[in-house]
Amino acid sequence: MKLKLIISSLILASLGAASADKKKKTFGDGTLPEFLVPYDVNEDGELDAEERQAARAARKEAREAKRASILETFDADEDGKLNEEEREAARADAKAKIEEKRVERFNEVDLDGDGGISLEEFSAIPSIAAMEERRPESAAKIFAKMDQDDSESVDQDEFLDRIRRSHRGGHSKPGPKPGEPGTRPEPKPKPEPKPRPEPKPRPEPKPRPIFRK
């Protein structure tokens, strides 16, 4: 009887530990992204249910504050909403800020400030270095796709083009322009279909003779 109680206690304890683990959340290799670290109150490297709730509430509050800031900045007619022209101005401003951040990122990677990123500088990016450890030579393959002019250096335009295409879902190197070597010949235009002949009119039926008794 005592043995059964001990076994039951061990099973319940293991189930309790498993359910507690399910309530916690880890990311990637087990480390938290930088923006979630402030919510890890107990500093255990994970977010439990209460910490996740606090993170969601804070992010929701940040989104609402951002919407209010956009409305205050671009609501030119002060009617409490954005019309099409005001929304377009807000989108253009957001796009410009994104481009500024991308240029800043390029300058951070360009360690020697010569206006181009070498393979060595590219491989020093933490995420690329981590990937290189798992898959050797992967950094060189990605770098070769970015280096569109084969100059062994990625300039700012090539770097930004890669980021833009990645966000659009395209990761391949742009192909050659029409007419350059390696392109497929342009398809010949299809001939226009010949017009069908109009159907001949049917002859009118002859009247039947009337027979009288």
Written overview of the protein:
The chain is mainly alpha-helical and 213 residues long. Among the domains are: 34-74; 78-168, Orthogonal Bundle (Recoverin, domain 1). It is 51% helix and 2% strand. The chain is built from 7 helices and 2 strands; from the N terminus they run αααβαααβα. Strands 1-2 form a two-stranded antiparallel ribbon. The longest helix has 26 residues, at 49-74. The protein is elongated, with a radius of gyration of 34 Å. It starts with a helix and ends in a 46-residue tail after the last helix. The model is unreliable at 1-29 and 175-180 (pLDDT under 50).
Strand and helix layout:
Elements: H1 2-23, H2 49-74, H3 84-109, E1 116-117, H4 119-123, H5 126-134, H6 138-146, E2 154-155, H7 156-167
Antiparallel strand pairs: 1-2
Helix pairs in contact: 3-7
Features:
213 residues; Recoverin, domain 1; 7 helices; elongated; disordered N terminus
Percent of residues in beta strands?
under 5%
Q: Would you state the CATH class of the domain at 78-168?
A: Mainly Alpha
The overall pLDDT average reads 77
Unreliable stretches (pLDDT < 50, length at least 5) are 1-29, 175-180
Task: Give me the Rg, rounded.
Answer: 34 Å
- The structural class is mainly alpha
- Give the strand order, joined by hyphens, for the main sheet: 1-2
The number of E-state strands comes to 2
Order of helices and strands: HHHEHHHEH
CATH superfamily of the domain at 78-168: EF-hand
CATH architecture of the domain at 78-168: Orthogonal Bundle
The rough form would be described as elongated
As a percent range, the share of helical residues equals 40-55%
Helical run tally:
7
Largest sheet properties? 2 strands, antiparallel
From the 3D structure, determine the CATH topology of the domain at 78-168.
Recoverin, domain 1
Distance between the termini: 119 Å
